[in-house]
């Protein structure tokens, strides 16, 4: 009826106006988040949809052979690369059926035909869609493409990955795009576009590549939380075994997610692999087929047992590539590392011998076929296929035994000396060993559940103490720092001064701290602050880096990995990443580094703390044991510091850095060692004092040194330096050292060195949030200020409207928010120690 219809129209109009007013006057961002969640709710079984069917593969063509291979294995997820530049070369004109690895119509038909799910990585913006001077697309244009993509394939897309490897090669050729600050606006816009079109689609981050240790925390700190459903990464450790880094890396990712309240979200591994040939891959990274299978099994097993890695996609599934599970063509030209027969092979022979010397690119090469070939497989000599069961190498040759002649119904014939021997596991249209490894694992573990979760191995424990980096806030001038830096008393993050590095060449320019002792085989976390002058070239990376060295100063490893800061928007930005020390590490050098461009950077407030990556796991129902001894719970707890063996005296237990020696046994020698000289205090923190001294001499050799603290022996060591840990803050300690030899002769006491430990650093907190406009979006460059101990502290919101006031002593602060043309707003905010208080503010535009 007309009147009722008019009433309905009026009701709809008022409802719409109500929503608009609600958005305009809401003073807190969470209200907007709630409205967005109301309009675009997650599917009711969102967690379940992420946690089922964990296996997938990458491919570029998805032909029937590939799909049948997936079905045979039991993998259910296709990772499809969606090349925007091919689909929309001209703005507004779409071609979804491009050939050459981009026939999306065909791929989606194949997925439907074989019952597979698609995770689409949408990458490579066309030139017309890129931001000026950047590789990243304009956020609104990328959002439009995603909406068109979803409209084209409604209900057929299970997940969308927002760009690909943006922290590394995905942003080529603009190096500075590796900084997360340029990616975050694209991610946030894309998430809302996807959810508005289809809230059931899972949205993941770009695949983070090459062990990116600081990038993920950047996403959280700079406002990207709530803009992805899963963290996505790629894992390619070269020829190295995954036991050296995989569980440590995923544990770090999980720790960061839990820190920022995303502990319920999963992690996806959308690419991982090792190559067994150099076809389209690095020849220096070749592993054997057996190693490839072993490494794959490790990643699959540890992902399943982690409880938080929920998807794994091998790269690559089907094609002509050194990583593929199914190799498609007999293309021998790329893989010239194939041996020849040392002697002729008779038709009745059950073993053959090949040379370990071959030729590649015209140059002699030596190859260990017991490593490069599967332990059992199929060879081809001329036209005869020959199975084998074992390999042994000796005297520059490899003997292949257990031959099955005429495999695959080929003809058994004799073969002449120097005939080329081809291994079909490496070259032919063949399901390689790793294909069956993947298949067997899937069939043994078709689904993953909490009952399979276990404590992850190969995660280095936290160090026993922080590294006492002296003058880490640069308030004592240049003390303990070297290289191309100066002290700037006009710039400071928390105090009055900072280190300044000026780069006028674009090459690497850096300063560094004197080497400090480090514990081997341990996990640490470094944090600091950097500020880049916006008047520079805009292409300069500024980073706090570390080099782990052995005791002699030889370089071992460095950090961070694929983590860059090119833009701080004229304010201070936090540097944060973990690193682990090799088992033979003895010292660490911290660098303040700039490269790739010209400009000025300041560094301040650097700290290095132990990093505990233990993650609690569910405790299964215990199985009764035949003894009354309680079975330890498999629940993961922080790894304890190993209890050191006490010295033979009733003195205090030595610190964890010392290793007591057994009581010497006299052997007739009565000459005492010389006195240790020049005992010095070389570093002090609130809980540790580090000492060094000149070595003693002895006629039969010095066996070690006894360390005395306040006249009580506390340690016995063999080196000429010692770190006395677990001390009280603001306390004075005195030390002397005595040397002893193998016969038990003890020197006189050294000089005494005294020091007072520092006061414990005051636990501080922070205030952070986003500044919104009452009429449109966020207010970048808004000024946020407050008084701290009588001094004015100000920060500027970044391009996302995000700000952080850090290092605030616990107190209640009157915080003022200012932006030109808007009414100032002043809010009282209480800060607690070691906590960040979130305050989102909407400023009202003046009329």
From TrEMBL:
Bias-annotated ranges (Pro residues): 617-665
Any one GO molecular-function label of the UniProt entry: hydrolase activity, hydrolyzing O-glycosyl compounds
Organism of origin: Candidatus Daviesbacteria bacterium RIFCSPLOWO2_02_FULL_41_8
Segments forming domain Fibronectin type-III: 675-760
Keyword Ribonucleoprotein tagged: no
Name by which UniProt lists this protein: Fibronectin type-III domain-containing protein
A UniProt-annotated Pfam family: CarboxypepD_reg
Region described as Disordered: spans on this chain: 613-674
PANTHER family in alphabetical order: ALPHA-L-IDURONIDASE, BETA-XYLOSIDASE-LIKE PROTEIN-RELATED
TM stretches of this protein: 6-25
InterPro entries for the chain: Asl1_glyco_hydro_catalytic, Carb-bd-like_fold, FN3_dom, FN3_sf, Galactose-bd-like_sf, GH, Glycosyl_Hydrolase_39, Ig-like_fold
Assigned keywords, A-Z: Membrane, Transmembrane, Transmembrane helix
